[in-house]
Amino acid sequence: MKAVIQRVLKASVTIEGNKVANINSGLLILLGIVNDDTQNDIDWLSNKIVNLRIFGDENNVMNKSLLDVDGDAVVVSQFTLYASTKKGNRPSYIKAAKPDMAIPLYESFVKQIETDLAKKVQTGQFGADMKVELLNDGPVTIIIDSKNKE
């Protein structure tokens, strides 16, 4: 499971002209899923994201987590995070989990992050053509991979 997290001042997701998610200060989480992801990946990744100290403290040092600042989150499925560009110029998405496997894992991740944050998390819609807008704060963008726990 791979996530690209972006610290944002605001973010929204629009599908077919309808805004389905809209947050202020917090995190935009782009989530990619592979076939061998499990609940262990979900638990580890959610815990890592909500506790990651990337928000400014009173001295403007990145020392506070999403939990500490009571920030919001929006989760957007993004199979293209597992694009392989090794051969040719057309990316291959063979590593990305198919919807029948990815949707339950995506939904489980959303539930877990809601549990870890003790609040509702907004989402895009799995498989939809989404327009994602954000105002990146910093900019701060971090990639976290549950298979590469560095």
Write a structural description.
The protein is globular, with a radius of gyration of 15 Å. By secondary structure, the chain is an alpha/beta fold. The chain has a single domain, classed as D-tyrosyl-tRNA(Tyr) deacylase (D-tyrosyl-trna(Tyr) Deacylase, Chain: A). The chain contains three helices and eight strands.
What's the layout of helices and strands?
Elements: E1 2-15, E2 18-23, E3 26-32, H1 39-51, E4 55-56, E5 62-64, H2 66-69, E6 72-77, H3 99-117, E7 122-123, E8 130-145
Helix pairs in contact: 1-3
Summed up, what is this model?
Helices cover 24% and strands 37% of the residues. With 150 residues, it is of the alpha/beta class. The strands form 2 sheets. Strands 1, 2, 3, 6, 7 and 8 form a 6-stranded mixed sheet that branches. It has a two-stranded antiparallel ribbon with strand order 4-5.
